[in-house]
Design brief:
By secondary structure, this protein is an alpha/beta fold. About 35% of the residues lie in helices and about 10% in strands. The chain has 14 helices and 8 strands. The chain is globular and about 70 Å long.
């Protein structure tokens, strides 16, 4: 009899998102306070379990110790790229043909882009651009060639059209051109655009006429910047840009490892887009296309609409406040999940502002 009571109580203290069970209701409340479960987390299409990242969801479905029922269904009706569950094996084949993208066009256009400077930053056709992707290729500076210096930069729009591309003349002498991966030779940089000029062009295009201090996440003219490891790229270009306008695939929680470390762009492209990049000489255009496709895929996800979707929104700051402990302990797990909010900005919210 005692066992049944304890089992029932434990079941009542089961998280409605990740299904963890707790002996005491106060432990469940603390879990919800720190886990930031929300409708924006990657979710298993079969058992509806919430996962912190797509990597965690992948392990749940096809990892070393998957949930067997979910694995069986996923093996016949699950997309290995977006991890969605389809209605039938036929629907899966149709879906996966669309879901697996190709990098062929990126490679071809990238080769054409190698021909020289391409500058459409002041072209009227780019004025309506709201999202751009940036990538750089680095050569080595310093006595041992380990200091990263930007030698080539590319900026594209959401339709993968080149807005700006140029070789960049670094401020410091180049001691290692890293030709095997960059394909850059000394003569390419001899008459290249100076770093200061590149910096100004990119900064002006991103801000789009809006003062830096005035840039805000919604309703402004500044453009969303997409990339992978953008802190490094922007630092090498000596460009400053507000974090609220940056979408970095290296830092986006759903695209990170279960250990909360960043995945490489090469891995993300292969795992979630279905094609390979960076197989030989690397082109920044190819990296731009990959990050833009990843961003568009994440942005296109359909999640529950919430008036205030972030835990940091003023309206949500007291959702799990300690002074509400007694009230929270009287809530069901489902009610707690309803009150919980995400601790990161989900990119699906960008689609609602466009």
């Amino acid at each position: 009899m005692d066992y049944r009571v304890e089992s029932s109580e434990t079941l009542r203290n089961k998280c409605a998102a990740c299904y963890r069970q707790f002996n005491k209701i106060e432990h469940l409340v603390e879990h919800m306070r720190t886990s930031y479960h929300s409708a924006h987390e990657p979710t298993c299409g079969i058992c509806k379990k919430h996962c912190r990242s797509f990597e965690s969801l992948r392990e749940h479905l096809i990892g070393p110790l998957p949930k067997q029922e979910c694995r069986n269904i996923f093996s016949t009706r699950g997309c290995k790229f977006c991890l969605a569950i389809l209605d039938s094996p036929y629907a899966l084949r149709v879906h996966q043909d669309r879901c697996q993208l190709s990098g062929v066009n990126a490679g071809l256009l990238g080769r054409f882009a190698n021909l020289g400077i391409r500058d459409n930053t002041e072209n009227g056709s780019t004025r309506g651009t709201q999202v751009v992707a940036l990538a750089c290729k680095m050569v080595g500076g310093g006595s041992d060639g380990s200091l990263d210096l930007c030698a080539k930069v590319c900026l594209i729009d959401e339709y993968e059209n080149i807005i700006f591309q140029s070789y960049v003349k670094p401020l410091l002498p180049v001691t290692n051109y890293r030709y095997e991966t960059t394909g850059i030779r000394p003569e390419y940089l001899r008459d290249a655009m100076p770093l200061r000029q590149v910096q100004k062009k990119i900064q002006d295009f991103l801000c789009n006429g809006e003062p830096m201090w005035k840039i805000r996440p919604r309703g402004g003219k500044a453009r969303i910047l997409v990339g992978h490891g953008l802190d490094h790229d922007l630092d090498s270009l000596q460009v400053e840009y507000p974090q609220v306008m940056i979408r970095d695939t290296a830092k986006y929680p759903p695209l990170m490892k279960t250990s909360k470390l960043s995945n490489s762009l090469k891995y993300l492209t292969q795992a979630y887009l279905g094609y390979d990049i960076q197989t030989g000489i690397q082109d920044p255009y190819e990296d731009c296309v990959a990050t833009m496709k990843l961003y568009m895929r994440m942005r296109s996800q359909v999640h529950k609409t919430e008036a205030y979707p972030l835990a940091s929104d003023p309206q949500n700051r007291n959702n799990f406040a300690s002074w509400r402990q007694n009230e929270l302990e009287r809530m069901s797990p489902e009610q707690m999940l309803e009150a919980s909010r995400s601790d990161y900005y989900c990119w699906c919210l960008d689609s609602r502002d466009m």
